[in-house]
Amino acid sequence: FGSTVVSLVLGTAAAYALTRKALPGGEAITAFLMAPLVLPSVVIGVAMLQFYSLTGLRGSLFGLLLAHVVITVPYTVRAALTGLAGMDSALEEAARVLGASGFEAFRLVTLPLIRPGLVAGALFAFITSLDNVPVTIFLVGANQTTLPVLIFSSVEMGVDPSVAAISTLLIVATGIILVVAERRTGFHRFV
Questions:
Q1: How far apart are CA 163 and CA 156, in angstroms?
Q2: What kind and span of H or E run contains 81?
Q3: Which DSSP symbol is given to 189?
Q4: pLDDT confidence of residue 77
Q5: pLDDT confidence of residue 105
Q6: Which residues does the chain have with pLDDT short of 70?
Q7: Which of 41, 101, 129, 160 could cysteine-pair with 68, CB 3.0–4.6 Å?
Q8: Which one, of 81, 92, 70, lies nearest residue 117 by Cα?
Q9: Residue 122 CB: number of other CB atoms within 10 A?
Q10: Counting beta carbons within 10 angstroms of the beta carbon of residue 183, is it exposed (0 to 12), middle (13 to 18) or buried (19 or more)?
Q11: What share of the chain is helix, strand, coil (3-state, %, to 5)?
């Protein structure tokens, strides 16, 4: 959940800066932000393990959170870029002309208009973070574990009916969350 919130904030800020400001090298920044989608998770996990071993972040909760943010930011950036591309920037400018500050215009006009895209990005980020075993297995400490790593470890040890039950619950919960989110926000336009 933490990585989803952080990547949603960072991804929305990055997408807003890329669409509303004339940044030099904007295409290169976008490509850099999307790079984790191209690289295999095992490569990211090994690279982060080596980096964390040098910096002392290995086995820390902060290090795990940071790794999951790196993996989930592309989903939130892409969804926010799509939402911002479908929004008329004149609406935000009109709010500014009518006396709203830059932050108020963003909060009261832009965010509600791009909310379906942000919900879609957050759902993708959450599902990706929850399901990412290759990176997590390299970075968790001896006293830490996540549900996917626990399931993966249980499957290696033998057949356990609790793994099937947990997997079924995850599939059902994901389906329910997607249906509710679709009905409330209509995010299918951004996916």
A1: 11
A2: helix 61-85
A3: G
A4: 95
A5: 92
A6: 187-191
A7: 129
A8: 81
A9: 23
A10: exposed
A11: 85, 0, 15
Per-residue pLDDT at 190 = 53
Q: Which of 20, 26, 15, 48 is nearest to 121 (CA)?
A: 15
Q: Which of 99, 83, 78 is nearest to 34 (CA)?
A: 78
Say if pTM beats, i.e. exceeds, 0.85: no
Cα radius of gyration rounded to whole Å, the chain: 19
Non-local CB neighbours of 42 within 8 Å, separated by 6+ positions: 134
What is the model's pLDDT at position 188? Answer: 66
Could you tell me the CA-to-CA distances from 101 to 19, 30, 107, 140 in Å, in that order? 19, 27, 10, 43
Separation of alpha carbons 97 and 47, rounded Å: 48
Is the Cα torsion angle 127, 58, 31, 106 positive or negative in sign?
Answer: positive
